[in-house]
Write a structure and sequence with these properties.
The structure holds two protein chains of two kinds. Chain A is mostly helical. Chain A is about 75% helix and about 0% strand. The radius of gyration of chain A is 24 Å and the shape is flat. In chain B, strands 1, 8, 9, 10, 11, 12, 13, 14, 15, 16 and 17 form an eleven-stranded mixed sheet that branches. Chain B has a four-stranded antiparallel sheet with strand order 4-5-7-6, covered by helices on one side. The N and C termini of chain B lie far apart (about 60 Å). Classes of the chains: A mainly alpha, B alpha+beta.
């Protein structure tokens, strides 16, 4: 097990390198921060001056070298938009907001998918199952962006129950969490349903029923525990999806997390910030996947990585 | 199954409880003494000499003061300077206001003026340096008098001092804590004090009790970053914010139909323009073709159909409030005569369908920018020009078309006038100047007029020189101005406040509205 983890961690190194190169080149190919910072009629000398001050006049390989040496020392450079403020601290101070939103969205996703998926499996092909499946397709198909605006219109503008935007008390997190969690809930619900159906068809469940155990006990004690293994693995892997969804959701709700920072940084071609967010979130996703694999082995003794 | 029903019951009960809780937890009502403004972008720095962004200066104006203030009509209001006079062609004396305090209680003196102006004039890494580069020295006469020396006679020194970058910053504080601490935790002499800043979320200011004009009406003002237009408008509709900056035209009706807020037009100094590449190898090198393009475009139609009537057609890059601007002659008027356009094209040797023209334009930068480019294309096709539209996302437009000077015909762009002055609108057009790559236009006569205006201290003579320079542009059309753009600002009905042409969010002038 330990050697498996170490091997996986070592495998991450070339991947992270690849990602740094990719994001470095992509950010530079889509636009120039200086032309976005200055008015379009700014004199050429001023442009050149600022380009020099930001080190953008250096050859690309040299800029990449500076970027890499910095990363190794934990220095992601300075923000262009925030005029020289340290990038790493700018990104880190946004984490709590994004984690709060992601956690709330995960609660929504699990809170909806677990009971509905379970009921769908138990009442397979009933009206409830069909309704749930239809809703799941709908929920998957709705873009976050649109759903967020519709929720704001309904619950904030028309009904006046919840605030429109920003981060504050618990009331502020409800709509963004619903927006972000709905699509994931649909996916997880389908997962829960199929995983439960599979387990319910197993011999030991039939045996349990034949023994005369109460149906409640059969489902909750025997079937659910095994059905949950696959479900939880999917929860782990797809929670990375939340990071991607947060970009859109945070923008719509003016939620000051990493996602909003990413959009604003891309819009102003704040290269160092974009690079830091992409590199750090890819590392986070890879660690998350590793964690899921390890947890999988711990929960299910049949799986071993040696 | 029994347990299924029980689960469903439990779920619906939880949902019900949630809904009840939500109803009682209504959005917090704001106190009468608090004002919340929704902007589309965050403050990038509190260092006023390094922001480079009008929307940020619009916030900073509340915590700092200028020496003089350029008002909407172009006149100068004394602020930290009580009076001024020109003592030699290159020196201006300023008497400074006494009994002005910094937010930490220390007095404001000439040393602060010297520190601020010399910093921005000397440090060429600062974003606002360009506007102050003509200043060579600030001489402190005594605690409340300075003389500013310029390298050459400078007719628009007051415009420079009264705009972005002219905010006076505290010498003692900056020297004590350093500029990077100042940039995130500033003090000024303005009506509001800095309280807190959380990035991409909010900036909070509170009233400064000892402000020299008198204490502001509001105890607290908050600038929130709400990038999404629809969300900003919705926040205004629910009363979460009192002012929504840059409201999209299509949301006007939604705001006006409620009772909570109204929409006010905000004229800006931004003129939407077509830049024309006059290179001889291109059809647009022929002045008749350029004139035909001008005559083919109905500026008023663009304003009426795409901007909901918000805008004023113009023949030059000028608008009310811009100093030395020939408004009577060139503003509020435009050329439109499709028959004349067809005739000019024929004269230039182009029958219907003979001429193919590329129309470049950005997307996502200016209100209705892509739509404007498309309608301009249609109007040109009406007079028999084949149009190739080239619309790109703004930064791609900048990088691939504008900056390298790859305009193959005409290109749409919007230019504001940060200095509120006519010379500023013309400064890019001399031979080899900032626009040389875009227009390939060069006219020595124009250059002479512009150079003469730069040192002409008599306002009337200066205006005359600049008028003649504008006339050359109108005649030769290296650019074809379309119209002055207007923004929309949503304002809550609980306050009175008028947006101004310089786009500053000066909250000292906002007051509660009696109902």
């Amino acid at each position: 097990m330990t050697s498996f983890v170490i091997r996986r961690l070592l495998q991450m190194i070339p991947i992270v390198f690849g990602i740094t190169l990719l994001v470095f080149l992509l950010v530079r190919s889509t636009g120039d921060p200086v032309s976005l910072m200055l008015p379009p009629d700014a004199p050429l000398e001023q442009r050149e001056q600022i380009r020099r001050a930001l080190g953008l006049d250096l050859p690309l390989w040299q800029q990449y070298g500076i970027f890499l040496t910095g990363i190794v020392q934990g220095d992601f450079g300075e923000s262009v938009r925030y005029r020289g403020q340290d990038v790493l601290s700018i990104v880190i101070e946004r984490l709590p907001a994004t984690l709060e939103l992601s956690a709330a969205a995960l609660v929504v996703a699990i809170g909806l998918s677990l009971p509905i998926g379970l009921l769908s499996a138990l009442h397979r092909n009933s009206w409830l199952d069909r309704l749930a499946s239809t809703m799941a397709i709908l929920a998957r198909a709705m873009p976050n962006f649109w759903l967020g605006i519709m929720l704001i219109l309904a619950f904030s503008v028309v009904l006046g129950w919840l605030p429109v935007s920003g981060r504050g008390g618990w009331a502020h997190v409800v709509l963004p969490a619903l927006t972000l969690g709905t699509s994931l809930a649909a996916l997880l619900m389908r997962m829960m349903r199929s995983s439960m159906l599979e387990v319910l068809g197993q011999d030991y469940v039939r045996t349990a029923k034949a023994k005369g155990l109460a149906p409640r006990r059969v489902v909750l004690k025997h079937a659910l525990r095994n059905g949950l293994v696959a479900y939880l693995a999917v929860v782990g892997v797809t929670s990375a999806e939340l990071v991607a969804g947060a970009v859109v959701t945070e923008q719509v709700f003016a939620w000051p997390g990493v996602g909003l920072l990413a959009v604003q940084a891309v819009n102003s071609r704040d290269m160092a910030v974009v690079q830091a967010i992409v590199v750090l979130s890819s590392i986070a996703v890879m660690l998350m996947n590793l964690l899921v694999d390890v947890a999988y082995a711990l929960v299910d003794p049949r799986i071993s990585y040696s | 199954m029994k347990q299924g029903r029980k689960l469903a019951m439990a779920m619906s009960r939880t949902l019900l409880a949630l809904v009840v809780a939500l109803i009682t937890a209504n959005a917090t009502a704001q106190s009468n003494q608090e004002l919340v403004i929704g902007q589309s972008i965050d403050v990038n720095t509190f260092d006023p000499q390094n922001t480079g962004n009008t929307q940020v200066s619009a916030v900073l104006v509340n915590i700092f003061d200028y020496l003089v203030w350029v008002q909407a009509d172009g006149s100068f209001e004394p602020v930290l300077a009580t009076s001024w006079e020109q003592v030699t062609p290159t020196a201006w004396r300023f008497e400074l206001r006494e009994n002005v305090l910094w937010h930490d209680g220390r007095p404001f003196t000439a040393a602060d003026v010297e520190f601020t102006i010399e910093r921005v004039a000397n440090d060429d890494s600062l974003f606002e340096h360009d506007s102050f580069a003509s200043i060579v020295d600030v001489e402190v006469v005594d605690d409340h008098e300075v003389i500013i020396h310029t390298s050459a006679p400078d007719p628009i020194l007051l415009n420079r001092l009264g705009r972005k970058g002219g905010e006076i910053i505290p010498r003692h504080y900056v020297e004590q804590v350093g500029i990077s601490e100042f940039a995130t935790n500033p003090i000024g002499t303005g009506p509001f004090k800095f309280v807190s800043w959380s990035r991409d979320d909010r900036v909070v200011f509170e009233a400064f009790d000892d402000y020299w004009r008198g204490r502001p009406h509001w105890d607290k003002i908050t600038f929130r970053t709400i990038p999404e237009d629809a969300t900003r408008v919705n926040s205004l509709l629910t009363g979460e914010i009192d002012i929504a900056v840059s409201v999209p035209v299509q949301d006007m009706g939604r705001i006006e139909s409620g009772s909570r807020a109204r929409v006010l037009p905000q004229p800006t100094t931004r003129i939407m323009l077509l830049f024309v590449n006059t290179d001889a190898s291109l059809p647009t090198g022929d002045p008749r073709v350029r004139a035909a393009i001008d005559y083919a475009i109905d500026d008023q139609l663009l304003v009426d159909t795409l901007m909901d009537g918000l805008g004023v057609p113009t023949l030059a890059r000028i608008s009310p409030g811009i100093s030395a601007a020939p408004l009577d002659e060139f503003y509020g008027t435009y050329n439109y005569d499709p028959d004349e356009a067809v005739r000019l094209l024929e004269e230039a040797g182009y029958g219907p369908g003979d001429l193919t023209l590329t129309v470049h334009g950005p997307q996502g930068r200016y209100s209705q920018d892509a739509e404007l480019t498309q309608v301009i294309g249609l109007l040109l096709e009406e007079v028999g020009i084949n149009v190739q539209l080239d619309i790109r996302e703004f930064s791609a437009f900048q990088q691939q078309v504008w900056d390298p000077g790859r305009i193959e015909g005409i290109a749409l762009i919007g230019h504001a006038n940060g200095m509120m002055d006519s010379w500023f609108a013309l400064r890019g057009f001399p031979c080899g100047g900032a626009y040389a790559g875009q227009t390939n236009w060069c006219n020595p006569e124009f250059d002479e007029l512009l150079t003469a205006s730069e040192v002409e201290m008599d306002p009337a003579k200066r205006a005359e020189l600049l008028r003649d320079a504008f006339a050359i542009l109108v005649d030769e059309r290296p650019l074809i101005p379309l119209f002055q753009a207007e923004n929309l600002v949503g304002v809550s009905n609980r306050i009175t406040w008028e947006p101004s042409v310089d786009e500053m969010l000066w909250m000292y002038s906002a007051e509660p509205r009696e109902e």
